[in-house]
Design brief:
The chain has about 190 residues and is α/β, with parallel strands linked by helices. It is built from 7 helices and 7 strands, in the order αβαβαβαββββααα. The protein has helices at about 5-15, 35-45, 60-65, 80-90, 140-155, 155-165, 175-190, and strands spanning about 20-25, 50, 70-75, 95, 110-115, 115-120, 135-140. The strands form 3 sheets. Strands 3-4-5 form a 3-stranded parallel β-sheet, sandwiched between helices. Strands 1-2 form a two-stranded parallel sheet. The longest helix is centred in the C-terminal third of the chain and has 18 residues, at about 175-190.
């Protein structure tokens, strides 16, 4: 997850007086104190940026995805992108880093993909030489901000995109479900 990038993109796209709100759902139990402080600092004094830290079950998370105008995932990497898949199945527009697993079940016609740069980083707790470096995608924040404006400013494009994401023949629930099943089988083989 990369909530700071989503907050920065939103701040570029919308001023506080705009009729917009960013809801950032984070499980703070999964973050260090420094990460939580960084997110709060990015939020700043913007009342239109709301941080939600509640643990949601699948039903509540799906209900939330169905209620929002757009799902933003400026992820650095993702195994599958469950929230993105749920958004596609629910007909919720998607702004996503154009990297990793979501590209296996979405395309440029079904989501607003944000360009990125690959960067190397050392993971916390790396103990073996082969773990010394990971490659992550850093989303282009300006492009992400422009994509958020598309969601607001181009309803016809968004309607086409949502229709493409929900189509049974392309990227609908059946396709997403099959891809999830494949990912789970592959991860089970690795254990």
């Amino acid at each position: 997850h990369n909530p700071v990038a989503a907050i920065r993109a939103y701040r570029m796209a919308f001023d506080p007086a705009a009729d917009a709100r960013l809801l950032v759902h984070i499980r703070f139990g999964e973050l260090t104190r420094l990460q939580a402080e960084t997110i709060r600092h990015a939020q700043g004094d913007r009342p239109d940026i709301v941080i939600v830290t509640a643990d949601l079950d699948e039903r509540a998370e799906r209900a939330l995805v169905e209620q929002v105008d757009c799902v933003v995932s400026l992820h650095r990497s993702t195994a599958f992108g469950t929230v993105i898949a749920v958004a596609a199945a629910c007909g919720t527009p998607i702004v996503s880093t154009g990297y990793s697993a979501p590209l296996t079940y979405l395309d440029d016609g079904s989501a607003l993909f944000v360009p990125f740069s690959l960067v190397e980083r050392s993971p916390r707790g790396a103990v073996r030489a082969e773990q010394a470096t990971e490659v992550w995608a850093e989303a282009d924040i300006e492009a992400a901000g422009r994509a958020l404006r598309v969601v607001v400013d181009d309803p016809d494009r968004v309607a086409r995109m949502v229709g493409n994401a929900r189509s049974v023949g392309g990227h609908g629930a059946q396709t997403v479900g099959e891809r999830l099943r494949q990912c789970l089988l592959e991860s089970d083989d690795e254990l």
